[in-house]
Specification:
By secondary structure, the chain is mainly alpha-helical. About 70% of the residues lie in helices and about 5% in strands. The chain is built from 29 helices and four strands. A hairpin with a 3-residue loop joins β1 and β2. The longest helix has 23 residues.
Length: about 550
Amino acid sequence: MGGLTEAKPRALAGERSFERGLAYVDEVSRVEFGDGWVMASVRGTVRYEVRLLLGGRGKPAGTCDCPYGQEGNFCKHLVALGLTVIAQEADLPRRRKVARDRTRGLDAWLTGMSQGELLALVREEVAEDRSLRRRLELRAASARGDVAGIRSRIGELLDSGPFARYGYVEYADVHAYADQAAQAVHAIRSFTASGRAADSIALAREAIGMLATVVDSVDDSDGRLCEVGVGLADAHHEACRAADPDRAELAHWLVTHALDDAAALTDIDPLDYQDLLGEQGMAALRRCAVEAWQANRTGWAEKYLMRRLAKSGRDIETVIAVHAADLAPNGHTHLLIARELDTAGRTAEALEWAERGIRETEDLATVDTALIDHLADRYTKAGRLADAVALRREHFAARRTVLAYRQLRAAARAAACWPPERDGALDLLRADTGRVLVDALLDDEDVDAAWRAAGEYGADDGQWLTLAELSRPTRPAAALAVYRRLAARLSRETGNHAYEQLVSLLLGIRDCHRGLGTPDEFTAYLTDLRAAQKRKRNLMRLMDDHGLSVP
């Protein structure tokens, strides 16, 4: 394990996780060394199991069952273990030798035992270790082909009762429960390997159902039960592959499961079974899916399954039918249909659906803006610039936002008709709200008009500050008045954020006085301000740092 340095876990973890890992070094315990690996427990929110692996060049890798580690990241707990290993580097050869000697000694001791002695040892351990007893009971039931016995044991493994407090499994107990529940996955896989694949299919389905009944009463913030669910799904798939089940029955179960809440737990995709189902089974799958969708055309799961099956079979008509059966009032579903048709090269139909989405949206203020963008883009590409402008104009009239104004401007400039369109748009804003008008004029970089609009219709502090910043070189007196008013308000506040804003305003005030040729007035103003604010030591320090001190 030589060659491991702090630079390697730092590079793998990133600076933030590495720095956080430093605080966990003292939480590392139960360190075990093996040939090329180190295992330990690290106490965090709960106790996590960490395994660090070292390659031939000392490049570390590892696993941790914390949420961040489960995503494949080199987490702070791995950093803590790596730093522990580095600190003990001088002792590593001895500890590795001790670990190897212990393993060899245990092997030699077990090998030298008689059958009776081994049985006595196993019975003694089984009596003391409930987890070991359950694992061996499952193996024994599997070896006997005892379906009822395995079903009973799986039920015990998935029972959350022993871990629950007041009917709920808290976060601190989830890891222990998930570890126990995961044994059900191993049991089913073992049963499949023993030649009982058909029974394993039924056991996997029952286990998925049992897990789904407890998931709402478990704090599964880390997703541990989802891992068990995916494991059961994999066990089910393996059993189906080994058993060659009835294709129509399998298709029916897959559809039923896909529409059940348990589907979120297992992430089973019916299309993953396509090779097992064959043409006959896939036909049955589609029939079942269609029947379910026809019974509930607005159901999210039903629609999603239908779209998946239709797309896999390149059946765009079914995709459109599924969308069209439940059109959203804001045009979003029309847009999805238009995109599908565009992808299929049916551009004329796609355009019709997009235009229909606009017509069928009662209030363009609520329309999916992506539909507006899509249709405007199609008009532009087709050379229908006037239609693009008309669409943007209608949308702006309904929304009256700066973004809608900006999009109207872009479309009108492309059609060489922006000046008249601008006049109409600004008239709408004058009749509506002056503050959007000010923003629109600022977006046009028409600062003089923005000043007039702010004075006539009003503006918020942010807009006044923007006007002052833009106009300071050309309108120093007007900008000065804005800065002074905003500074007076901020001078009554406390806190570093307010102080930083105030200093920024003071720098603007200083520049305005310089532009006006009245530096003495600024000095007098600054002297009075510092006298009034002298108890705010952080403010005084910040002003000094920016050269806002009085001679």
